[in-house]
Amino acid sequence: MADLSNTPLPTYRLRRLEWPVVDDRCFHDLANRAAQEATPDAKVLADGLIDAELVKCGGFDDSLHEDRGITNKLASSQVMKRPRKQVALLHALYWRARQQSAVWRLFCYLVALSLLDPKALEAPVELHRLTHAVRNVWQQLCCFQLPFNEDNLDWEDHPYELWGSYQFSAIRWLAIMIVRGCIGDMAEVMKVIADSRCLGSLSEEAYDAYLARPTSGCFTSNLNESKPLGEDEVIPPFEFYLPNNVPPPREWTKEAFEQVHYKFIREFNHIERVYKGYFNFPDDVLSLEIDEER
Q1: Which residues are paired to 202 by β-bridges?
Q2: Per-residue pLDDT tens for 90-122?
C-alpha cells in the first residue's frame, strides 16, 4: 500500500478507510442510535448545518438543480410545519462528506507526486457536463472496487434514503481534475491510485473490459475541461464542497496549496463534529483527533 504521509492530511485520517462503506460502524449502527434522542444543542447544530448546505445548493428552488430528493424533503417539512428528518439528512450529509474526503485525499496524493497540476482547481466545474475525455477517465475510476460496489448496490439496500443526483459527483470531480491537470501518463496515475487503495483495489476484470472498449484511449490535458458554458451560476448538489473555481495564486507553492487544503479540512471537520455529536458516537467508532486543522 502506498505511503500517503507526504500529503497535508490529518494523521488519524490516514489510518482509516475514508470512503464510506455500509459495514462501517458509524453508518450501520444508525438504526439503533436514531432511536436515542439527540440533545437540544445537537439538534440546533444539525439544523444550522443543514440550513447552511441548503443555501449553497439554491435553497428550496429545486428547478435550479437535480438533487430533489433533499430539497423536496426539506420543503415538505417546512410547508407541513413538521420536524425535519434530521437523521436521514445528516446521514446523507456525512456519507457524501466521507466520499469527498476520500477523493480529496487522493487528489492531494497525486499533486504531491507531481502527477496532477493544482491549476486544475482554478476553473469552475460543471459536474453534469461530461466531455468524452472526462467520461473516459470516469469509467476508468469506476473500475476500482469501492465506487464499483456502490454503483451495484440495489436501491433498497442503499444505506441512506436521500440519494438524489449526487451518486458519482465526487468521482466525476476527480475525473475532471485528472483531465484538466494530468502530468504524464494516465496508466501511471491509475497505478498510483491502485497502490493508494483510496478507492479500493482495481478490479482487473472491470479494467480489462474497459480497455477492450473502442472508446478507451488517451486524452489531451485541458485546464478548462467541463467548465460551465456561459456565465450562468453552477448550482452544486446538496453537500458538495470539493474545491473548484479557486482564485489562482501568484504561484502554486506548497503553502498556496495548503491554504486550499485546510479550508476543505475545516468544512469536513465541522460536518464530522456535528454528526458525531448528534449520534453521540464513542471515540472508538468515530474519532475527532483533529491534529492538523489550521
Answers
A1: 144
A2: 888 898 899 999 999 999 999 999 999 999 999
The confidence score (pLDDT) of residue 15 equals 59
Task: Report residue 46 as a C-alpha cell.
Answer: 444539525
How many CB atoms within 10 Å of residue 8? Answer: 16
**CA–CA separation, 50 vs 97, rounded Å?**
13
Cα–Cα distance for residue pair 43/46, rounded to 1 Å? 5
| Euclidean distance between CA atoms 17 and 101, whole angstroms | 10
- CA gap 3, 270 in Å, rounded: 27
Q: pLDDT tens, 214-229? A: 776 678 889 999 988 8
**Structure-derived torsion over alpha carbons of residues 134, 151, 277, 57, reported in degrees to the nearest 10:** 50
Report the distance separating Cα 241 and Cα 93, nearest Å.
11
- The Cα 276–Cα 283 span in angstroms is 9
Counting DSSP H helices and E strands in the chain, the numbers are 11, 0
Enumerate residues 6+ apart whose C-beta is below 8 A from 69: 161, 162, 163, 164
Instruction: Identify the three-state secondary structure at position 185.
Output: coil
What share of the chain in percent tops pLDDT 90?
40
CB of 244 closer than 8 Å to CB of 124 = yes
The answer for residues whose C-beta is within 8 angstroms of residue 240's C-beta and 6 or more apart is 56, 57, 96, 100, 127, 166, 169
Q: What is the dihedral of CA 144, 117, 12, 281, to 10 degrees?
A: -70
d(CA 244, CA 22): 29
Distance between CA atoms of residues 149 and 99, nearest Å: 13
